[in-house]
């Protein structure tokens, strides 16, 4: 889950170049596939209401194990679809490195995971717990 209450009106999600439409997360966790997402947008960008992006990382629909690329493109406005360009502000972090996490420990099953703005995080594990 990612809070994007700053300057974005929407977020487009693509997996290996294929765009996943919004509101595709099923009710049953067992049905989750990589790229499914739910973006709760608000139309008034001056609002203080939180905007959230929830997305799925799963190996269920991967036909063979390879490097999979998920791309998130922030959109400044609905009408113009102007993309927001951002550069990671920190060094590359690896999911498998406990030092990449503020707690100094890897996330465990059932935990909420927050990738902070500016992190350049690489998911370098073949399998993760359900987070």
Summed up:
With 131 residues, this protein is mostly beta strands.
Describe the structure.
- The chain is mainly β and 131 residues long.
- It has two domains: 86 residues, no CATH class; 45 residues, no CATH class.
- 0% of the residues lie in helices and 24% in strands.
- The protein is built from no helices and eight strands.
- The strands form three sheets. Strands 1-5-4 form a three-stranded antiparallel β-sheet, with no helix packed on it. Strands 3-2-6 form a three-stranded antiparallel β-sheet, with no helix packed on it. The chain has a two-stranded parallel sheet with strand order 7-8.
- The radius of gyration is 15 Å and the shape is globular.
- The mean pLDDT is 75.
What is the strand and helix layout of this fold?
Elements: E1 2-3, E2 10-15, E3 18-20, E4 37-40, E5 52-55, E6 70-75, E7 92-94, E8 120-122
Parallel strand pairs: 7-8
Antiparallel strand pairs: 1-5, 2-3, 2-6, 4-5
């Amino acid at each position: 889950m990612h809070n994007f209450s700053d300057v974005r009106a929407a977020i487009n999600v693509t997996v290996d170049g294929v765009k996943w439409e919004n509101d595709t997360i099923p009710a049953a966790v067992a049905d989750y596939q990589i790229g499914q997402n739910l973006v709760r947008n608000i139309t008034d960008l001056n609002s203080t209401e939180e905007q959230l992006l929830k997305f799925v990382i799963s190996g269920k629909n991967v036909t063979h194990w390879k490097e999979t690329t998920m791309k998130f493109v922030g959109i400044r406005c609905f009408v113009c679809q102007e993309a927001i360009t951002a550069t990671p502000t920190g060094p590359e972090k690896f999911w498998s490195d406990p030092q990449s996490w503020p707690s100094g420990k890897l996330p465990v099953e059932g935990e909420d995971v927050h990738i902070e703005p500016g992190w350049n995080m690489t998911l370098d594990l073949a399998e993760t717990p359900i987070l």
